[in-house]
Amino acid sequence: APTPTPVPAFASVPASASARANSLVPLTDLFAERLLLADKVAAAKYGTDKPIDDPERERQILDDVSARAVALGLDPEAVSAVFRDQIEANKLVQRGLYARWDAHPEQRPTERPDLVKEVRPQLDRITTQVLAELRETSALRAGRSCAPRLTVAAARSAYGHELDLLHLEGLARALPSVCAGR
Ligand SMILES: C=C(O[C@@H]1C=C(C(=O)O)C=C[C@H]1O)C(=O)O
Question: Whole-prediction pTM value?
Fold first, then answer.
């Protein structure tokens, strides 16, 4: 009987060969999950003196993802742009929630989660997953099919996560840099 060809260990496969994902849905699912966490972020800050915008935290995230992009063989500028969009999308949702809670006090959150101990670690886990998915989809994102696939993927993720109008607006804001990563 013929001996099966040995499968090379993952570590020996070049980055380009592992960038084989054929769908952007895992990526847009992560964007949707990150946007749903904006509710917890806003609940952590609403009624406190902590502003929605935290430029120092944003800088830390962007520096971190740029460095990790290089380690993954990705363009740090392109990866940084994707995360800048995630941050803008998140703040868009937070502002929308503030407006909703100002206008409808009965909808205000009844609990205040701990931003640093609870919510940011959840955001950080998504960051790691997004980086892995960006690597996995790098070939796909460089191709002609990226824009139409992204539209379809986002629609699926919005439906799957039952996003309301505000979070749908957030998801739209999260997308513009995805296909620019060549
Ligand atoms: C999510 C937060 O709010 C804002 C949005 C951020 C993000 O999307 O990562 C980071 C800092 C803040 O400007 C936060 O403070 O953690």
Answer: 0.90
